[in-house]
Specification:
The protein is α+β, with helices and mostly antiparallel strands. The chain contains 3 helices and 4 strands; from the N terminus they run E-H-E-H-H-E-E. It starts with 16 loop residues before the first strand and ends in a 25-residue tail after the last strand.
Length: 147
């Protein structure tokens, strides 16, 4: 495997990775397109039967308030925190669509007060899908939109 550019996972071959995990990373990317590109690339690199778990910021009011308190504490310590790259991202349907574009099944799962997980499963299963089973993406359940 070659070195990744930091902007995508193009150096990783299709269907070559068993598991992908990302925690407290994607919320620091500079724009929405970069986060969606990583979700799509993660789906692309998963082997048949592979899984991914990518944490993003939860779009609800309480996580935003907790982040604000944390940012204010950082400001009091003299740390720079107000750049757009460090504010987090909130867009649920687009995360699911990005995963689907590369053929993964995806679900959004809330964990705790601040975290939303994009969970991915490669739809290229090692085992045959039984006849009459719903399509892999039939279980997509986006969370309700929040004000």
């Amino acid at each position: 495997m070659g070195a990744c550019s930091g902007a995508d996972l193009n150096a990783i071959a299709d269907h070559s990775v068993d598991d992908v995990f990302s925690y407290i990373t994607l919320q620091h990317l500079p724009d929405r397109a970069a986060v969606l590109r990583y979700v799509q690339d993660t789906s692309r690199v998963l082997r048949p039967g592979g899984q991914g778990a990518l944490q993003v910021r939860h779009p609800r009011l309480l996580p935003w308030a907790l982040d604000l308190v944390g940012h204010l504490a950082h400001v009091a310590q003299g740390r720079r925190v107000w750049s757009k790259a460090c504010r987090g991202r909130a867009y649920q349907p687009a995360l699911l669509a990005a995963a689907e574009r590369s053929g993964a099944r995806a679900e959004l799962r809330s964990r705790g007060r601040r975290h939303l997980w994009v969970q991915l499963w490669s739809t290229q299963s090692r085992d045959p899908v039984p006849s009459g089973s719903p399509p892999p993406n039939a279980t997509l359940r986006p969370l309700p939109e929040t004000p």
